[in-house]
From TrEMBL:
Keyword terms, alphabetized: RNA-binding
Organism: Scyliorhinus torazame
Name of protein: RRM domain-containing protein
Annotated RRM domain residues: 2-75
One Pfam family recorded for the sequence: RRM_1
Signal sequence, renumbered to the chain: none
Keyword presence, Endoplasmic reticulum: no
Alphabetized GO MF terms: RNA binding
C-alpha cells in the first residue's frame, strides 16, 4: 500500500507546503496532495518511498509549529474497531454471553 495519511496538520497547511516538505526530504510522491482540515493524503510511487516518508517525517518534523504524523492510509472498511476498557475494579469478573 503506497497511499499515505498525513495527520496533525494545522488548518492553514496547503498542498504547496506539503509538496515543499516532501521535496526538501527527497521523498517521491505521485499525483496531488489531497488536503482536508487537519489531515491530507498522498500517493507514493512504491512501498520504499512510503516507508521513507513514515520513517523520516512521522513525529519528527514540524509543519507550521505542529509535529506531523505520517502513516499508511487504511480504508474505513479495513480499520479495526477495538474497544479498550480500563479501570475495572478487581472484584468484577468478565462474563461471556452468547
Amino acid at each position: 500500500m503506497n497511499k499515505l495519511y498525513i495527520g496533525n496538520l494545522t488548518e492553514n497547511v496547503t498542498t504547496v507546503d506539503l509538496e515543499s516538505l516532501f521535496k526538501e526530504w527527497k521523498i517521491p510522491f505521485t499525483g496531488q496532495f489531497l488536503v482536508k482540515t487537519g489531515y491530507a493524503f498522498v500517493d507514493c510511487p512504491d512501498d520504499n518511498s512510503a516507508m521513507k516518508a513514515i520513517d523520516i517525517l512521522s513525529g519528527k518534523v514540524e509543519l507550521h509549529g505542529k509535529s506531523i504524523e505520517v502513516e499508511h492510509s487504511v480504508p474505513k472498511r479495513q480499520r479495526s474497531r477495538k474497544l479498550q476498557i480500563r479501570n475495572i475494579p478487581p472484584h468484577l469478573q468478565w462474563e461471556g454471553r452468547k
